[in-house]
């Protein structure tokens, strides 16, 4: 097998990373991101503002992390970079916003932290648009 064959062979790991990217992002989008985006005015009145940035900026940053970043992650474009705002948002949620949550109450946030930290560590895998485009645009190459 040549080096080229090895680089283009899809493995179970690549399929698993693709599955993890897609399903994790769909969960984040459907449960958190899209409701915030679609009900922006309502969410302005109920969003927590742990850093005193104001509800509009806090909500906008949350939508960035829960809507735009998942699109990049699903596509596998700048995947590791796109996971950072998601991980930050989830960490803020469980540490500063809801420190009173028991493990059972915060299990969805903790599971999402596990999913997105795994994606951060492993990268997007070979079944990612960014992996294919990186040959032509080196700036898209994963770290």
TrEMBL record:
<comment type="similarity">
    <text>Belongs to the DoxX family.</text>
</comment>
<feature type="transmembrane region" description="Helical">
    <location>
        <begin position="110"/>
        <end position="129"/>
    </location>
</feature>
<feature type="transmembrane region" description="Helical">
    <location>
        <begin position="53"/>
        <end position="74"/>
    </location>
</feature>
<keyword id="KW-0472">Membrane</keyword>
<keyword id="KW-0812">Transmembrane</keyword>
<keyword id="KW-1003">Cell membrane</keyword>
<feature type="transmembrane region" description="Helical">
    <location>
        <begin position="81"/>
        <end position="98"/>
    </location>
</feature>
<dbReference type="Pfam" id="PF07681">
    <property type="entry name" value="DoxX"/>
</dbReference>
<dbReference type="InterPro" id="IPR032808">
    <property type="entry name" value="DoxX"/>
</dbReference>
<keyword id="KW-1133">Transmembrane helix</keyword>
<feature type="transmembrane region" description="Helical">
    <location>
        <begin position="12"/>
        <end position="33"/>
    </location>
</feature>
<protein>
    <submittedName>
        <fullName>DoxX family protein</fullName>
    </submittedName>
</protein>
<dbReference type="InterPro" id="IPR051907">
    <property type="entry name" value="DoxX-like_oxidoreductase"/>
</dbReference>
């Amino acid at each position: 097998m040549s080096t080229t064959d090895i680089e283009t062979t899809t493995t179970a790991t690549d399929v698993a990373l693709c599955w993890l990217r897609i399903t994790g992002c769909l969960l984040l989008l459907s449960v958190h991101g899209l409701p915030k985006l679609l009900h922006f005015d309502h969410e302005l009145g109920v969003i927590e503002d742990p850093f005193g940035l104001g509800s509009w900026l806090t909500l906008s940053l949350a939508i960035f992390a829960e809507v735009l970043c998942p699109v990049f992650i699903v596509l596998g474009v700048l995947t590791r970079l796109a996971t950072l705002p998601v991980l930050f948002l989830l960490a803020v949620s469980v540490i500063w916003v809801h420190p009173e949550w028991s493990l059972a109450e915060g299990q969805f946030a903790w599971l999402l932290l596990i999913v997105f930290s795994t994606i951060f560590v492993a990268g997007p895998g070979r079944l990612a648009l960014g992996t294919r485009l990186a040959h032509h645009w080196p700036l898209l190459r994963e770290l």
